[in-house]
Design brief:
Structural class: alpha/beta
Largest sheet: 7 strands, parallel
Number of strands: 13
Mean pLDDT: 91
Order of helices and strands: EHEHEHHHEHEHHEEEHEHEHEHEHEHHHH
C-alpha cells in the first residue's frame, strides 16, 4: 500500500517539538507501520526555515514542498477599514480573507495531483483542513480516497479567538463568521473517507462524516510512558511548560499572571512559578521576570529536571484547537495539573476534577486549585498517581496505531489494516 502524507506542520525531526509537530510524527509513524508512506509539505511561502527544510530533506529525501499564496484583501478593503477603530479594522481585514484561505489554489492542486497520479498512491492522509483544501483534496474528482486529521478544527479556533476580542466588529460578526466556516468544513469533510479528531466535542461538528477519536500524546510515548518522578513534599514550585511563541499559550500565561497569580501569592507568599518553553521573546521574558516570584527559564535542556522539582504544573490556556499534550506529559511524570475548562475539554471523559487534576472554572477556582495542591500533599499525590495510571492505560502509541488501523480498514484497505508490524 502506498500512502501520501500531506501536512503543513513539520514532524519533530530535526528540532521542532511543538504539540502539532509531535502529532504529525505520531500519525506518520503509525501509517508507516502499514505501508510505504511518502511526504509532501504544503505550506505558506517562506516556511519552514532553510535550516529546518534542509534537515528534513536529509532525513526524508522523497519529501517535496509545495507553497501556497496567502490571500490578500480586495482592493479598497483598507480604505473601508479606515472608517473603523484600530481593533475593529484588524478584525474586518481578517474577515475579508477568512473564507478565501480555504479555496483551492490551482498551482498547488496541480502539483499535488500530479504527484498522486504519477506515484500511483492508494490513499492520501492530510493533516488539517486548510492544506487539504488548498491542495484540492476535497475536489469531487480527486483520484484517490482521502482521510483528514482535523486536530485543530478551524471553525472552533476562530470562535474561541473571536470570543477573546472585545471590539465592535468582532462581536457583531462572530456568530455569522463561525457559522459560514462550519458549513464549509462540513461540506468538505463529507467528501472524505473520514476524519481523525483530537477533541471528542468536535465529533458533533462533523457528525455527517465518519470520525475516529485519535488523542494527542507526547511523541516520546512511542517508546513507552516515562518513569514516574517521586513527589517533592516541600516544593513550592509551580511549573508552566509550553511553546512561548504560540498565541494561546502566551495569552493564557499573561492572563494567569495578571488575574490568578496575585491571588495565589496572597495565600501562599512563598510559591514560585517557573516558566519553561521554547521561542521565548526577550521582551516577554523581561516583562514576566519582573513579576513577583516568577522565574523565567525559557528553553530547558532537561525538562525532566523541571518536572522533578515542581509540586504540580498549570495549563491556563483558554483558546486554540486540538488538545494540550502538556497535560498528559505532566501526568506521565506523576505531576498533577491545574487547568482551564478549555484545556480540559479534550480529556473530559478520561481525566476528572479532583480525581486526576484540578479544573479551574474561573479565576478564583484556578487560584484555589494552586493553593490547595500546595497545601494538601495527600490530594496532590493521589491525583498525580491516578492521573499517571490513566495516562499509561488510555494514552499510548499502541492505541494510536489501533485507531489508524481502524480508519484504514474502514477506507477499504482491510488487508493493510490487519498487518502485524
Amino acid at each position: 500500500m502506498k500512502i501520501l502524507f500531506l501536512t503543513n506542520v513539520m514532524p519533530v525531526f530535526p528540532v521542532h517539538h511543538s504539540g502539532g509537530a509531535q502529532r504529525t510524527s505520531l500519525i506518520l509513524k503509525a501509517l508507516e507501520s502499514f505501508g510505504q508512506v511518502d511526504f509532501v509539505f504544503v505550506c505558506p511561502q517562506g516556511v519552514p526555515s532553510r535550516q529546518r527544510w534542509e534537515g528534513m530533506q536529509e532525513a526524508r529525501p522523497e519529501v517535496i514542498r509545495v507553497q501556497w499564496q496567502e490571500p490578500k484583501p480586495f482592493r479598497g478593503a483598507h480604505r473601508l477599514g479606515s472608517l473603523l477603530s484600530a481593533p475593529s479594522r484588524e478584525s474586518f481585514l481578517e474577515s475579508v480573507v477568512e473564507m478565501r484561505r480555504f479555496e483551492v489554489q490551482p498551482t498547488v492542486r496541480d502539483q499535488v495531483r500530479m504527484r498522486v497520479v504519477e506515484g500511483k498512491y492508494d490513499l492520501v492522509v492530510a493533516r488539517y483542513i486548510r492544506p487539504a483544501a488548498v491542495a484540492g483534496l476535497f475536489d469531487r474528482d480527486f483520484p484517490v480516497p482521502v482521510l483528514v486529521d482535523i486536530d485543530d478544527l478551524d471553525s472552533e479556533v476562530l470562535r474561541l479567538k473571536l470570543e477573546q476580542k472585545t471590539d465592535f466588529f468582532s462581536r457583531w460578526t462572530r456568530n455569522s463568521r463561525v457559522a459560514r466556516l462550519e458549513r464549509l468544513i462540513r461540506e468538505y469533510v463529507k467528501r472524505t473517507k473520514g476524519v481523525f479528531i483530537a477533541n471528542p466535542s468536535d465529533a458533533q461538528r462533523v457528525q455527517d462524516t465518519r470520525g475516529w477519536f485519535l488523542p494527542n500524546i507526547p511523541f516520546h510515548f512511542i517508546n513507552g510512558v516515562n518513569e514516574p518522578l517521586p513527589d517533592v513534599s516541600g516544593s513550592q514550585d509551580i511549573l508552566f511548560v509550553g511553546n512561548l511563541g504560540y498565541g494561546p499559550n502566551k495569552d493564557g500565561l499573561n492572563y494567569f499572571l495578571q488575574a490568578v497569580w496575585p491571588q495565589v501569592l496572597g495565600e501562599e507568599p512563598c510559591a514560585r512559578l517557573r516558566v519553561v518553553g521554547s521561542f521565548l521573546k526577550p521582551e516577554d521574558g523581561s516583562r514576566w521576570a519582573e513579576i513577583e516570584n516568577v522565574d523565567v527559564i525559557g528553553f530547558a535542556e532537561d525538562l525532566e529536571a523541571e518536572y522533578a522539582r515542581c509540586a504540580f504544573s498549570i495549563c491556563p490556556v483558554y483558546w486554540g484547537g486540538g488538545s494540550k499534550i502538556k497535560i498528559l506529559e505532566s501526568l506521565a511524570y506523576q505531576r498533577t495539573c491545574v487547568i482551564s475548562p478549555h484545556a480540559h475539554e479534550a480529556y473530559a471523559t478520561s481525566l476528572r476534577h479532583r480525581e486526576h487534576l484540578w479544573v479551574g472554572h474561573d479565576d478564583a477556582e484556578f487560584a484555589a486549585g494552586c493553593v490547595t495542591l500546595l497545601q494538601d500533599g495527600a490530594l496532590r499525590q493521589r491525583c498525580a498517581q491516578v492521573g499517571r495510571e490513566t495516562v499509561c492505560k488510555e494514552f499510548t502509541y499502541e492505541s494510536t496505531r489501533r485507531v489508524v488501523s481502524s480508519a484504514l480498514a474502514a477506507s477499504g484497505f482491510t488487508a493493510v489494516a490487519n498487518a502485524n508490524v
